[in-house]
DNA sequence: GGAAACTATGAAAAGGTTTACATAGCCCTG
DNA sequence: CAGGGCTATGTAAACCTTTTCATAGTTTCC
């Protein structure tokens, strides 16, 4: 006699829907229904099943669920890096919305390398994510091809894609840069410098720079007179870049930095050089990191709706794909936060 | 005649292992083998299959793979929050190791709420993660029960669990606190204050505080003379806490903060109060965030091997479970980074 | 009172892999 | 040259759900 057939289901094995059904005296289909659309099951049976689910500590198998329904409740996030804290707020916003809906966030970094982004995307597709949040609208053809061929929804953040068919929750980096230029012009600054992020294959960095230059020009400042340096987003790099600018261009009275991280470094360089901010040099950052308010002097900066972008992206992916009010293009605003690092122009020396 | 049977496989559908096998004229088992243990397949067949895989842009279905093999290549990370940048470095370290191995990181936040942690853990188990990285060794019974019952490997970071059967990659928060106390004693400070994190259900915050107090006592400073305030890890809260301390205890000459975030706020409070650091007040932080070096004055702080913990945790989960050299307890060191925010004691006023 | 329309449930297939087991061909060895 | 041990491949089951379709029972309506 096949004794093993009679052996009780191994207690130590995680229970499945079969075990639940057996105990509730119903079919697995009904158990599944209770778990997914409870209202379709008679109340007493439903409650009996739920009780058993609870008793056994049953947790559905996400892989099986995903395989069958082709929905994993996983959303991928691909950012260049979290090292410089710029994208952390978006990540938090995204997760804060996903979690209550039972969805999870899969995080990946590219290190600002678009080729690595291709591999990252492939990896996320393999994991079966329901959607991918990208930063910026500059990507390899291959990246987009992968996304299209595998029918993975995606959205762009931190920028607004020119192609309106691509969902984006972002802001116009150019206007952000323009905000800074405009304010410096208002203050009477004529000798400007920019420490931009690395603009190559980075539409955010180049947009901010372009917007700044264009507005400066409109305000009567000769574009070619503006000193521009590019620098990776690191404190030390901002410091080094500012040092060069201050040494080589003794008449510069204001510096616009493509990110607050660069600005922190640049502020330090001013101090190193014995220049005071804002008396000698005005400084404007970009991002409005939490720390900006706590620097000395408080950093004037362009606020980026980072958390909001994350939340909006989450909304987009959580919304029923056929829903009527699905916002696939959310245009958010930047605004200038004036603190103590900017003042009216005064000649240096 | 059933024409649809003859219809070519829908090009627009992602190809599966069946399609590959068909084109290569072999069985799906062989395709699977090529993908997982290539060395077991004859070289010419293997290469033919790989070529087809490439041509078709085949991407394996992770859900099916996970379902069958019960390995998802997903590692969960549960931290209180990323808002204060404390845990970001660990996250980056973890991801940087997981990605090359084809594994991905699923991020979740608890907001310092241990009950929410239970739900988060359940959710991650449902997603089928192969392992979970936790922060600290203080958790609800139910959390641990879930992990055990579902046989999910997990590890503790940012602390060393007392229970040696629980893998941990962390450091001793008490020694970290002791480092700070010891250094302040060396400098001759006798009137100390601590702005600790919220110690309730937080072994890291309480460990740091305890270690500080114990060492201070050992160095002849009466424990009861030390002013202790607890505060959530936010710039503004650190500022508020320091303000109270400075107002109510005019003789305090040194403040130890349970995190750099608190220290940034506290530095600001000193400035608000017209006190200079380090001449009037010495300040020590904890974490050694990147920003610490760029504050004015540069912040003396206890360095935490955050990135390393992430990397070590990744190593642990990536290692073959039966491997001999699997390090399930990695004890890392904190060290004091002396900058400009600390100086020998001088009476205030 | 009987057809029509619902409602609650069950049976069974499907989703794409991995893997235990079987097999066929080959090379050795005695 | 029989038989044993390899190696490379194939067959088919299993992983755990969701979902389509069928069915039995109940209500509704003329």
Automatic annotation (TrEMBL), chains A, B:
Signal peptide: none annotated. GO terms for molecular function: DNA-binding transcription factor activity; transcription cis-regulatory region binding. Pfam families: LacI, Peripla_BP_3. SMART domains: HTH_LACI (SM00354). The keyword Cell wall biogenesis/degradation does not apply. Keywords: DNA-binding, Transcription, Transcription regulation. Residues 15-69 form the HTH lacI-type domain. The keyword Cell membrane does not apply. It comes from the Bacteria. CDD domains: HTH_LacI, PBP1_LacI-like. This is LacI family transcriptional regulator.
